[in-house]
Design goal:
The protein is α+β, with helices and mostly antiparallel strands. The chain is built from five helices and four strands; from the N terminus they run ββααααββα. Strands 1, 2, 3 and 4 form a four-stranded antiparallel sheet that branches.
Length: 260
């Protein structure tokens, strides 16, 4: 009797992609969280506006300072020129002894005083010009001499109370602080509302595909006897839709204390 030898071979491949869609339609902490983030955005916008306004105010103040320094130079320059001429005349009279030493010393003292003031005005002009150049982003060595003159502003007529009310309505820093407080309030409500349950609508669909083959071969000692090959393919589709319920009751008081 011949000896029969059997050999089995199996090859199988499985693919199972799944798609899960979830929509949390009931969440009491979501809207307060959105409101808190919106208030944070408003706060940043107010702070940006305050920064821009502060920069514009700095440019305006530096420009006024340049105007003031230029105006003082224009006012004192003729006086200095007159004192120089007067001192020259007095000094010429002093040499032939037509005038006493006291008059010469007095005029010279006035000349030095005005000269020192002019030096201070020029130094202030250079400083204010440098500040204005820094405010507008120009070269630091820029020297500004405005053509328009410094004119007095009109009187401020509103009372102190009206001034405060106007500041509360127009100052971006106050609006930013109010937005920050509102954001903290909304965030606190959002954290407390996390103790309430949430409901979600969940839909899942998936396809499981399995295919493969099984081979069975028989041999005796001398020759191949027979071979059996079986191929299989299975495709299974599963889908379901449901409502998911979630309720986090115990968190060690974390949300409660954070909301404070």
């Amino acid at each position: 009797e011949d000896f029969i030898q059997t050999r089995d071979y199996q090859d199988q491949v499985q693919l199972a992609p799944n798609l899960i869609i979830s929509w949390k339609f009931f969440d009491l902490s979501r809207q307060p969280s959105i409101n808190a983030n919106f208030q944070i955005l408003k706060q940043r916008q107010y702070l940006y506006a305050a920064s821009v306004r502060s920069q514009l105010l700095s440019v305006q103040q530096d420009y006024y300072s340049v105007q003031a320094s230029s105006m003082l130079i224009n006012l004192y320059k003729p006086l200095l020129q007159n004192l120089i001429r007067e001192y020259t005349v007095i000094l010429a009279k002093y040499e032939p002894a037509l005038i006493d030493l006291g008059s010469v010393s007095q005029t010279r003292a006035q000349l030095f005083l005005i000269l020192n003031q002019m030096i201070g005005y020029y130094n202030n002009l250079y400083k204010t010009s440098s500040d204005l150049a820094n405010s507008i982003g120009a070269s630091p060595d820029s020297l500004f001499r405005p053509n328009d003159k410094l004119t007095p502003t009109s009187a401020w007529k509103p009372s102190l109370k009206q001034t405060i009310i106007e500041a509360e309505a127009s100052r971006e820093e106050i609006a930013a602080a109010l937005a920050a407080a509102k954001s903290s309030e909304e965030l606190s409500v959002s954290l407390l509302n996390k103790y309430f349950p949430t409901f979600s609508l969940v839909a899942t669909t998936g396809i499981t595909s399995t295919w493969g083959s099984t081979s069975n071969s028989n041999y005796n000692e001398r020759q191949f006897v027979n071979q059996t090959i079986n191929e299989s393919y299975i495709n299974r589709n599963t889908s379901y839709i449901g409502v998911n319920f979630s309720w986090s009751i115990l968190d060690g008081g974390n949300n409660l204390f954070t909301s404070k």
